[in-house]
# Entry
Amino acid sequence: MGLLALRAAAAVLVVAVGACARPPTLGSVLKDRYPGYQQVLPATSVSLNDRNYEFVPGTLMSAVELRPASRNEAALWQADPIYCPPGYPLSDVSWRDRSPTRVTYNFDLSLRRVLHLRKAKADLNLEENEIEVIRRVAIRIDSPRTYSIRGHASVPRHVKACIDAIMKRPGIQKIRSIIVGNVHVDVLFKDNASVMAKWSVANKINSSLGFGALKGESYTISGDNLVFGADLVRVRN
# Structure
């Protein structure tokens, strides 16, 4: 009961934070560079040896689609704190390296602004008036790798009581694969941006993605070993 209460409290905290400012979704980066992966909130650092870690491939979870996939963005999901782990840690799951990536969105020229505005809004959950104070955004993902069930991987052995309980909930999804990496976001503000405007945008971007530092005209945030994408499949119940 203690663990369940702790997870419930954590979920309430995530919802409270998300109500103020949703974290970066990297929706455009996932769509363009890592197709097939969607984002599942809350954002979390990977845990290799915890058998109860929620983002192990084979996990069943109840999730709500906050935003469907589009031509420019991957889908965005919000996971319930209730899930059924497969009975083995992520360290037992096979993984492979993926290519690192870097994307830069510029807003100092009108042509670049038109081309980059939509993708920056998708990746950072910013509105147009917030982007008005930004000159350039660079998103870098280092050491990406995917964990997937394939070949002779372990067979999920879910606890029956958990399955019986979760199957009564709507929107059951199964994780087939996750993508993990070190995510860095560098924001360069315009010269005339006020300190208040900078802090407002910085706090919104940084709501759950690591630690950030506001320095003069720029702001950098980073998160290591973040699960920034998942491949989900709907489970009939």
